[in-house]
Design a protein that fits this description.
42% helix; single chain; 12 strands
């Protein structure tokens, strides 16, 4: 298995302002320096990065510059995170247009994974039919990812219609897309990340490790998650892909990465 790190700690989780009025530009984005993030992730001992779609698209007209940045620090582009509402037919073509642009550039920059999050919650609440709509859209997005040689995975997320265990089970039954378990989002949504990984191990092709405690996302080892058991399950199943550590924010992003890398070395036998 290989270890990556998400660059969103360097700036936090925000969105691109153009997306407020133009759905095709509705990107995740973090205002931090990607150059600093890549350098410090490498220095902390990780082998690859994941970044938001909006940060990737800032390199749309200069992909060679981004590839050179990764090469300079010995990093691999593991994956790109993107999202959508997925359930509204009137804007789905615009959202899929965005997803395809992201997938194309991600592939050009050497990515392996496209992580898909989302599923809007209506003002009036979730409709039964929303799960079928989400499933159909995810299948379409997965086809786009595969067109460019990327592995698509669905990422359960707080604030979406797939955050609770029964919601995850429902969407998994309606799709054949791979699962990217984000361990902290699963726990915060009322689930058990160890049980989820065990249950869906045959559909896990990419993993996000993130600790959780007292309502906060934390560096590994500072919350209550059993990463040693999760890692044991993955190894027993022959998983040899990427585990990406994600920490949405930290007062000292580099220190947060170092803490998590040290934990993985000492508690989960990652050298």
């Amino acid at each position: 298995m290989k270890l990556g790190y998400q660059t969103n700690t360097w700036g936090g989780v925000v969105g691109h302002p153009a997306g407020v009025t133009s759905v095709k530009d509705l990107y995740y984005w973090t205002p931090g320096s990607m150059e600093q993030a890549v350098k410090e992730i490498a220095n902390a001992g990780f082998a690859g990065i994941e970044l938001f779609d909006g940060n990737l698209m800032t390199y749309e007209d200069r992909p060679a510059e981004f590839r050179n940045l990764l090469q300079q620090h010995g990093q691999k582009l593991v994956g790109v995170y993107t999202g959508a509402n997925f359930i509204f037919p009137d804007i789905w073509k615009e959202e899929l247009y965005k997803i395809e642009k992201v997938a194309q550039l991600a592939a050009e920059c050497g990515a392996e994974h496209l992580v898909l999050g989302g599923g809007a919650i209506r003002a009036a609440g979730i409709l039964d039919s929303d799960f079928e709509a989400l499933a159909e859209s995810l299948q379409g997005a997965a086809q786009v990812a595969e067109k460019y040689g990327l592995v698509p995975s669905y990422h359960p997320h707080l604030g979406t219609m797939v955050q609770a265990p029964d919601q995850l089970d429902r969407i998994m039954k309606l799709t054949n897309i791979s699962l990217c378990p984000d361990t902290a989002h699963i726990e915060a949504g009322g689930g058990d990340p160890v049980a989820v990984i065990r249950k869906y191990i045959d559909r896990v092709r990419y993993v996000h490790y993130k600790d959780y405690g007292s309502g906060n996302f934390l560096p590994l080892g500072e919350g209550g998650q059993d990463f040693a058991e999760m890692t044991r399950i993955l190894r027993a199943h022959g998983y040899d892909g990427w585990i990406t550590v994600e920490l949405d924010s930290h007062d000292d992003p580099y220190r947060g990465a170092v803490i998590s890398r040290k934990y993985l070395r000492e508690q989960c036998d990652f050298q």
